Structure formats: C-alpha cells, structure tokens
Amino acid sequence: MYASEKANLYLLARNEERLSLIKNDLMVRGASAVYTHPFDANDFESHKALMEEAFTTLGKVDVVLVAHGSLPIQEECNADSLKTITEMNTNGVSVVSILTHIANLMELQKSGNITVITSVAGDRGRQSNYVYGAAKGMVSTFLQGLSQRLSKSGVHVLDIKPGFVDTPMTVEFDKGALWAKPEKVAEIIKKRIEKKSNFSYAPAFWFFIMTIIKSVPRTIFDKVKL
Ligand SMILES: NC(=O)c1ccc[n+]([C@@H]2O[C@H](COP(=O)([O-])OP(=O)(O)OC[C@H]3O[C@@H](n4cnc5c(N)ncnc54)[C@H](OP(=O)(O)O)[C@@H]3O)[C@@H](O)[C@H]2O)c1
C-alpha cells in the first residue's frame, strides 16, 4: 500500500534472498526507493547502528512498523529454559531493544509514528502459549509508557493486537470464522496510523472477545483448557 503511494521504504529482515525479491516487487508497485539491510532481531549489539543507518538513509521517517516474531510450541519451552529465553528475546526483548533506539531518533525528529504488532495473546496468559503471550504483554506495557513519553514530542505510538491471522506463522492451524487475512489486518493498521490511534485490536471484534476473556476470574480460568 505504501509502495503504491510512492513511498521511500527501508526493509530490515534476516532472509536476504527474500528481501531482494520483495524489494523488486515493491519497486514494480510504485515505491520511489527501497533500501534493505540484513537484520537478526536477536543480535542486540547491531541494533543501534542499524536504526541510525536507516534514519540517516531516509532523512525523515514517517512510519516505523515492527512486525517480526515467532510462535513457539509451548511444550518445547516448558522443557527447555534456553528455548524459552530465545523466544522471549525474539518476541519481547529484541522489540524493546530496537524501540529504545527508534524512540530516541523519533524524539529528535519531533514527528512520526511507531507501530508495533503485538497480539491478543499478551492480554491474558494461557497454558497453551504463555511464553509468547508474556513477551507480547511486556511489549504492550512498554508501548503504553513510550506512548506517554513521546506524545510530548509529537510522535505517535500504536500497539496493534491481532487475533488469528492466516500467515506463514499459523500455516499448521485449522482456520475458522475468527481468522483474518493479512491484507485485512494491513488495511486496519494503515487506517489506525492515519487516525493517530494509540491502540487497536485487529480486527476490532477481538476487543469484545478479549474483554470477556480478561474478566473471567482466575479460579474459573485455571479450570478451563484454552
Ligand atoms: N499470524 C497470527 O495469527 C498472529 C497473531 C497475532 C500477532 N501476530 C504477530 O504478527 C507479526 C507478524 O507475524 P506473521 O503472522 O506475519 O508471521 P510470519 O509471516 O512468520 O512473520 C514473522 C516474521 O518475523 C521474522 N523473524 C522471526 N525471528 C526473527 C529474527 N530473529 N530476526 C529477524 N526476523 C525474525 C520472520 O523471518 P523469517 O521469514 O526469516 O523466518 C518472519 O518474517 C508477529 O509479531 C506475530 O507475532 C501474528
């Protein structure tokens, strides 16, 4: 969508071959320029230089979208604390790390939007995915504070909480009525950025589902298999 509006784009991801393919595709779709750089979310020491290089290359950054993540098998995390730590790093600590640098750069710029994809899983810990959920919940709480801090500098912070989305991450799952297509979630994200929202479920009906799930008392919730 941004490419068709002739945007300058800067993509960071770990698969250089796919980065190159996506770059070519975005140029065909109308992007004015597409820069790419390899990025491993868990190489924390590289983050500062990478973020600074992206901001220097683009000059002014209107929108940052943080969208990396991994969905671990909870049982594997239960059996191995190193697996748990890696997943917490990918879904939580790495996001906090890059946001720390991006926030400082945006604060200097005094404008822009920082959008992060978290998850409904961060709203309540469930036995089936609480490592992933805890990492996402940490990022959402971090974003609340960051939003308050950066509002003084004219920078907007947006927390997007999708429900089930049909992407490579969920390829093994059976799909049903609650599932959304990534194109639909992308539309919601773009609209929310334009409206300068701070927070949104995606799609919006997850607000009602999560309000109910969050209100179930712990004594009852512990007996439910979710
Ligand atoms: N799909 C859902 O139902 C759902 C629901 C709620 C929230 N989300 C969140 O939505 C965001 C996008 O996920 P998706 O559904 O689009 O799944 P996806 O297609 O698997 O995208 C996740 C991306 O994260 C990248 N990534 C993982 N670990 C990385 C690392 N260490 N360094 C750099 N990149 C790394 C992956 O790179 P590779 O391609 O190289 O593996 C992949 O491109 C994630 O934050 C996810 O948690 C998804």
TrEMBL record:
PANTHER family xref list: DEHYDROGENASE/REDUCTASE SDR FAMILY MEMBER 7B, DEHYDROGENASE_REDUCTASE SDR FAMILY MEMBER 7B
GO cellular component, one term: membrane
Pfam family, one: adh_short
Name recorded for this polypeptide: Sorbitol-6-phosphate 2-dehydrogenase
Organism, scientific name: Vibrio maritimus
EC number: 1.1.1.140
InterPro entries: NAD(P)-bd_dom_sf, SDR_fam
Regions crossing the membrane: 199-216
Broad EC category: oxidoreductase
Family to which this protein belongs: Belongs to the short-chain dehydrogenases/reductases (SDR) family.
Highest taxon of source: Bacteria
UniProt entry keywords in alphabetical sequence: Membrane, Oxidoreductase, Transmembrane, Transmembrane helix
GO molecular function term, any single one: sorbitol-6-phosphate 2-dehydrogenase activity
